[in-house]
């Protein structure tokens, strides 16, 4: 339920946003040029309403026409360097563990994690109205409305994944130049994240995760922590918590059943982790949502 109104970047420290990795974010504003590139762990959506913009994505310039919706993994250094038009932008920041728990197609996920910027061929007539409704609902801080907004954002991305979209072929151009598509080991992180997303509801060991990348387990753990600012174990637990929260809200399943379906292995472990993260029991969380 913790949303940020805006990711504020200290120009001298592009990693300042890392403190918000577990939070959703929403902001509406006039396009703002950035003096330097920055990066953070979210999946980011940009709506360009009656404006267009030029970006540097991992050092490559791209131009996004007005009236488009773009989606990309913000762990890739990005910077807005020019803007045209009198319109406004809407930025939406989605925690990576939430995005992966939504189970989009492998092809769609692979495009994003290969460093592409995905561009919807057109906006829908209701997109601007819907973003204003989201902004209003988030301001109420009503848990039911907030969960509804999250669900609608998820479904808007799902619709994007099913409709025609284009990319700037960023990963292909980098391959032709003999460069890695992602800097700083992010290509290994992509493989780790995909493996965890596919298997978090089962028992996962560090050795299994490392084997997917061909890395030594110790190096895989260090690399993951350096990029994601959390441990592999903590990240898996966050994905499981996302799954469990959805089941607590959307189903009448017993708490024990939910603990097993989400991959916790035991009811006591589920209670310990859930209470530590949310300062309430799973049943209290369910009751709070139901009463609201």
From TrEMBL:
Gene3D superfamilies: Homeodomain-like, Jelly Rolls. It comes from the Bacteria. The keyword Iron does not apply. One of its GO terms (molecular function) is DNA-binding transcription factor activity. Keywords: DNA-binding, Transcription, Transcription regulation. Pfam families: HTH_18 (PF12833). The keyword Transcription applies. Residues 190-288 form the HTH araC/xylS-type domain. This is Helix-turn-helix domain-containing protein. It comes from Thalassomonas actiniarum.
């Amino acid at each position: 339920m913790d949303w940020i109104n805006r990711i504020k970047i200290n120009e001298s420290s592009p990693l300042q946003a890392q403190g918000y990795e577990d939070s959703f974010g929403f902001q509406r504003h006039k396009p703002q040029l950035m003096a330097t590139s920055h990066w953070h762990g979210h999946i980011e959506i940009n709506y360009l309403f009656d404006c267009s913009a030029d970006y540097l994505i991992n050092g490559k310039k791209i131009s996004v026409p007005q009236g488009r919706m773009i989606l990309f993994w913000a762990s890739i250094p990005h910077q807005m360097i020019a803007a045209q038009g009198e319109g406004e932008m809407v930025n939406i920041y989605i925690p990576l563990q939430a995005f992966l728990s939504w189970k989009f197609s492998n092809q769609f996920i692979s495009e994003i994690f290969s460093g592409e910027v995905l561009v919807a061929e057109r906006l829908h007539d209701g997109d601007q109205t819907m973003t204003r409704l989201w902004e209003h609902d988030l301001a109420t801080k009503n848990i039911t409305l907030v969960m509804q907004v999250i669900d609608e954002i998820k479904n808007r991305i799902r619709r994007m994944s099913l409709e025609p979209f284009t990319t700037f072929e960023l990963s292909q151009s980098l391959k032709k130049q003999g460069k890695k598509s992602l800097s700083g080991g992010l290509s290994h992180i992509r493989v780790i994240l995909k493996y965890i997303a596919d298997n978090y509801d089962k028992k996962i060991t560090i050795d299994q995760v490392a084997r997917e990348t061909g890395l030594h387990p110790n190096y895989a753990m260090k690399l993951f922590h350096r990029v994601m600012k959390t441990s592999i174990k903590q990240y898996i637990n966050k994905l499981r918590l996302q799954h469990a929260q959805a089941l607590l809200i959307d189903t009448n399943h017993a708490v024990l059943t939910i603990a097993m379906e989400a991959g916790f292995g035991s009811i006591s472990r589920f209670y310990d982790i859930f209470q530590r993260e949310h300062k309430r029991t799973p049943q209290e969380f369910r009751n709070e949502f139901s009463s609201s």
